[in-house]
Structure formats: C-alpha cells, structure tokens
Write a structure and sequence with these properties.
Structural class: alpha/beta
Number of strands: 10
Largest sheet: 6 strands, mixed
Oligomer: single chain
Number of helices: 25
Radius of gyration: 32 Å
Strand order of the largest sheet: 1-6-3-4-2-5
Strand content: 5-15%
Number of domains: 3
C-alpha cells in the first residue's frame, strides 16, 4: 500500500478512469453535511487566489486545503481500455468534485469565460484521441454505479445540452443544481466573473489536496475499507454487508456477474425507500438494515441484533463459506417477501397480524412470519393460518394482560426453529405447539380466565395506546364480516384513530352521578367505569375534538351522524349484543358500560382463541438466553381531548 497527499491536478489531469465498484453504496451526500463544508473550503481557497491576483503577489507556499482521502486499486484491463483504477473508498467525494467541475464549466460557458470552461472540461473528460471506439464510455474520468449513472451523466453533460434531469429528486441531480447556483452566486457577473472562475480552477488545481492511498494487488481492499469506515460514519450496516458481498463475488471468481447481480437483484435495495429510517426496539436504523437482521436471524436460527448486524453477518458468511451470489439473490427474495407481507398480505388474517406487529412495533415476530411465508418452503395455506392465529392470539392476550415483551426475541426464534425443523405440512402446527408449551410467567400464553380478567378490570385505558388501537381494530375487523355493508379492514397502525372515552374523564360538568343512598359508592363506581373497556371506542381526530366532554345527547348525536365503526354503532348506539344481553335502556351509564365490557370480552375470546393447555409440562420451554431486549412501543401522548 502506498499513501501520500496529492493535489486535485494529480487526480484529474491525466487520462485515467476511476470506476466505482459494485460493492459501493450509491451517491448519498447532501447539502448541509457534505456539499456546503466542501464548498466553504474550496471557496476560501478561491478567494485566496483572487486576492493574490489582485495584489499580483504569489506565495511560494500557498495555503493548502485538505478534502479527505481516497483509496484506489489499479485493475488489469483490455489493452483497448483506458488506464484505470477501482475507487475503493472516497467515491462520494470524487463524485461530488466531478459534479462541482461540471457546474463550474456550465457557469463559465454561460458567462463566455472560455478559458475557465476549457480547464474545467479537461478534468471531466479524457482526451478523445485516447478513447478507443469500442469503449466510448472511457471518455469519462469517473464511471458511477448503475443506479447513479443516468443522473451522473446528466450532471456532467456538456454546456448546451438541455435534456431534462432523469430524476430531479436524485441526490446527484440536486448536487448539480446546488453547486451551479453556489458557483454562479460566487462568480458574480460582469468583466470580473471570468477571472474569478479562472481563480476557482486555479484553487482546485494548486490549493486543494487529498490523501491518495494506492493498494497493491495483495492488499485486502475489504479490510482496508472497513478500517477506514470503522466509526460507521454515514455507512449503514447494510452498506457494509453489500460491500462484503460484492467483494466476495469477485474473490469467488464471479466478477463478470457483479453488474448483473447489482442491477437484477440488489439495485432496488439501494433505493430511498429501503434507506428510510425505521425503529427496531430502541434503535433507529434504515429499513434494509432491519430486514437483513430478520433474514440473518432465519439463517442462523438465533436472534440477531441490528446494532451488531454486520459483524454477525460477516462471521456467518465467512465461517460458512457461502456463495456470495446466492446470498445476494436470497436477500432480495426475502426483502420482496417482507414487502409483500407489508403491502399486500395474502389474506385478511395475515393482514391483521402484520398490522398488529407494525402498530405495536413487535418486530421480533418478523423472522418467524417470514420463515412461514417463504415461498421456497411451500407451507400449506391452512398451516400458515394456524401460525398466524397462534401468534396473533399470543401477542394480543399477553398485551392485554400487561405481560412483558422482554423475551419475545427468544420465544419467536424458538417457534421458528420448531417450524423450520418440521415438515412444511406441519409448520404452523409446530408454531402453535411451541407457544402452547411455554410455562414461565415471562412466556406464558394467558388462559381465557386471565384474558377475561384483564378485560373486565377497571383500567383497560392504562394499556399503551398502540395496544388499545390494535385490540379495537381487531374486534372491528371481526364484526366486518361478509354480511357487513362495509367490509374494509380497519388498520391499527393509523394515528388518525383516537381512543375516545364515551363517558368523559372530565365528567362532572355534564354527567352528574345518579341519585344514590351511598354517594361515595356511586362515585367509586363512576371512577371504575371511566377507564374500563366498555367505555372506550375509536374515533377519528376531528370527531373526537368535536365531542370532547359534551353530554350524552350531544355525543350520541355526533356518533350517530359520523361514526361508521361497528364497535360503536352496534354496542354504544344500540344495545351491546342485543340478542344475548338485556337491560340496556339507551342511556350511557355504569350499567351500559358494564354490559358493553362483557360483550366486548366475549367477542375478544372468539377473535383471539387459545387452545386448551395442560398445566405443568415445561418440556417445550425454549432455552435461548443471549438476546433479551424488550420490544419498544411508541411512547404516545394521548391524542384524545376528552
């Protein structure tokens, strides 16, 4: 390995082509963190040159500005090709500099500053006389990844080319527009603008430098890449995994397949959608990091931490000597599976379970779900339904009973292992049997008595808001059967749905206590009823705000006019379970709340059933013990203004 500080002239003036290898991430630099600081340094250097031009005094040792480091490795090429190097690290920096040069050329051309425009152009394209006709793309000094290519070629297009940007939201296009505006503003107009642009190029030529590290053939580019990025600055876990996989593709003798693997399999995973932040437990990571952790959990059949994903992946990959091309394809297959389960679940039951998992952020269930729905396993539909029903009931019952989520990662990994070890025709039943075999309090699947006991308690409202929404959404969807006029599924992961106290928490102004020989007993009954299950329902935010703490006639009128939820219309505006319950007289009081609590409890038992479980047998208790992070639901403010 050779290293040294060089000026940008040394980087761009020769006929040379820098190629960004397939293992690199796409272009992600942005204005505030990268473009502006780089431009500040370049502008300061250019201002220095302008000053020296004005004074006609040239220092023997002009100030130098350091722009960071780049790592390159020479590659053997067809003799017809331009001499070139792989850009192992620093591709974001060099890409940005090329965009800046193109923006400078455009500004110079618009101002008829021909000398400056020509000098900028010389650093953007190699001498045409050195480019072979079989390889016309060699004219570019820098060759980007396929996912950035169209936008980059637009960004470095010649002056006079008025073609539209392929994707204005792409960071490459944004960078070109940002630098063009910044350079034009700095250059100004009039006779001095051309000199200032020439000074800008001179500053880039003589006063800006980078540390260039040139690797030898025997140097391990992957190890050096990881060492340079050990702090994880802007590099996600999935960036590092991609780098490792595509390096291994080359090391395993499949370099010719690298671009097709990138374009046909990995490319969508580099999109902005997959790089969006999501929360996993207490950690915020990009979406691909999280799904890769789910996938690796399935492969290892042990819980994988998103925080340590790359190290665990690297150890698994290298120790197992897996084929990198096959792994890339498998990752894409499972990412697509996750997408399907999220966006287009195969049936209503699965959709409701996914909604519950997303709303309550019970992310440790995902590896189990993905393993059951893996097309390669071909688990029968009825077995998938068994698994979905078991997990849904297990989560809902434990959630309502207020039991800990601390051991869910180990629990669901154990269920997944049992399912994977069984025949596909028994995969869902294996999940059911595993959950049924849990005996420890931290893992127990609550019985009907425990479930109903929690539902009949006086503080159902004390549960987290996501759990309450998931509970009511589940009941609403059960009521929206084939006979319902509107069978559209209600989603728990909908922040517009608020939890409404029908009899408001601030009840004293409009809801007087009933006459009673024991006022204290009546007050205690009222306080127990306020946060009970039967007094709660879902409303949208606008309806919630309109009702607030109004009296019953006002609330009843508002609900009758606007509410479409069956949990409201069939058990608040009408007698709850009218065919089996009696004694409701249309008023909303402690008696009506009690009747509705019982009706909703019976409906919940039917919605989330549990098999009969014999006490005492702990033979199926899982033994995983290393990763017990608690699930983290959103800490929400109560949106209802009751």
């Amino acid at each position: 390995m050779q290293a040294g500080d060089v000026t940008l002239k040394s980087v761009f003036s020769d006929n040379h082509r820098y190629e960004i290898p397939m293992f690199q991430r796409p272009y992600v630099w942005a204005a505030e963190r990268e473009w502006a600081p780089m431009w500040d340094d370049i502008r300061a250097a250019a201002d220095g040159v302008v000053h020296d031009m004005t004074q006609d005094e040239w220092p023997d040792e002009p100030p130098r500005y350091f722009l960071g480091s780049i790592v390159v490795k020479a590659v053997q090429r067809n003799p017809q090709r331009m001499d070139g190097s792989l850009l192992i690290d620093g591709q974001q920096r060099l890409t940005t500099l090329q965009i800046l040069l193109a923006a400078g050329r455009q500004v110079a051309a618009a101002l008829d500053a021909e000398t400056a425009a020509g000098r900028f152009a010389a650093w953007l394209e190699n001498d045409p006389a050195t480019v072979h006709e079989n390889f016309p793309d060699d004219r570019h000094k820098l060759w980007p990844l396929p996912q950035d290519r169209d936008e980059f070629l637009w960004a470095v297009r010649a002056p006079g080319d008025t073609s539209p940007c392929p994707d204005p939201a792409h960071q490459v296009c944004r960078a070109r527009m940002w630098f063009e505006e910044a350079i034009a503003k700095w250059a100004g107009v009039g006779s001095g603008a051309a000199d200032r642009l020439t000074a800008l190029h001179s500053a880039l030529n003589d006063r800006m430098q980078v540390a260039m590290i040139t690797l030898e053939k025997t140097d391990n580019a992957q190890v050096i890449f990881e060492a340079l990025n050990h702090r994880g600055v802007e590099l996600s876990q999935s960036d590092l995994i991609k780098n490792l996989l595509f390096r291994l593709v080359e090391d395993q003798g499949h370099r010719k397949d690298a671009e097709s693997l990138l374009v046909d399999h990995w490319l969508p995973l580099d999109s902005r959608r997959w790089r969006a932040d999501v929360t996993s437990g207490r950690i915020t990571r990009n979406r691909l990091d999280v799904v890769l952790a789910y996938w690796l959990t399935i492969q290892k059949q042990s819980a994988v931490s998103v925080e340590h994903l790359f190290e665990e992946f690297k150890t698994w990959m290298l120790d197992g000597d897996y084929n990198a091309a096959a792994v890339i394809k498998a990752v894409r297959v499972h990412a697509d599976l996750y997408d399907r389960l999220m966006e287009n679940p195969p049936d209503r039951g699965t959709a409701e379970l996914v909604d519950h998992v997303v709303a309550t952020k019970t992310n440790t269930a995902w590896p189990l779900l993905m393993s059951v729905f893996d097309d390669a396993r071909a688990v029968p539909v009825h077995e998938r339904a068994i698994a979905v029903g078991a997990v849904g009931s297990y989560l809902m019952r434990r959630g309502v009973c207020g039991l800990t989520t601390k051991d869910y990662n180990n629990i669901f990994v154990s269920a997944m292992k049992a399912s994977l070890a069984s025949e596909a025709s028994h995969a869902g039943t294996a999940v059911l049997e595993t959950l049924s075999g849990l005996r420890a309090e931290s893992r127990w699947w609550p019985s009907d008595g425990e479930f109903v006991g929690a539902l009949l308690g006086s503080n159902f409202y004390g549960l987290s808001k996501p759990r309450i929404r998931a509970f009511f959404a589940g009941l609403e969807n059960r009521l929206r059967d084939k006979q319902a006029e509107d069978a559209t599924r209600v989603e728990a992961d909908n922040s517009a749905l608020n939890i409404e106290h029908v009899l408001p928490q601030a009840w004293k102004a409009h809801w007087p206590l009933p006459d009673s020989p024991d006022p204290q007993k009546a007050l205690e009954a009222r306080e127990r009823a306020i946060n009970a299950l039967g007094n709660l329902t879902l409303t949208n935010g606008r309806l919630n705000s309109a009702m607030r703490n109004a009296d019953w006639p006002t609330k009843r009128g508002a609900l009758a006019a606007k509410s479409t939820l069956l949990i409201t219309t069939s058990s608040i505006l009408a007698a709850p379970g009218a065919t089996v319950l009696t004694g409701w007289d249309g008023e909303w009081d402690e008696s009506a709340i009690g009747l509705r609590t019982m009706w909703l409890s019976s409906l919940a038992l039917a919605t989330w059933p549990r098999p009969e479980i014999e006490e005492g047998d702990d033979s199926l208790e899982p033994s995983d013990d290393d990763n017990d992070d608690e699930e983290s639901e959103d800490a929400e403010e109560d949106q209802a203004a009751e």
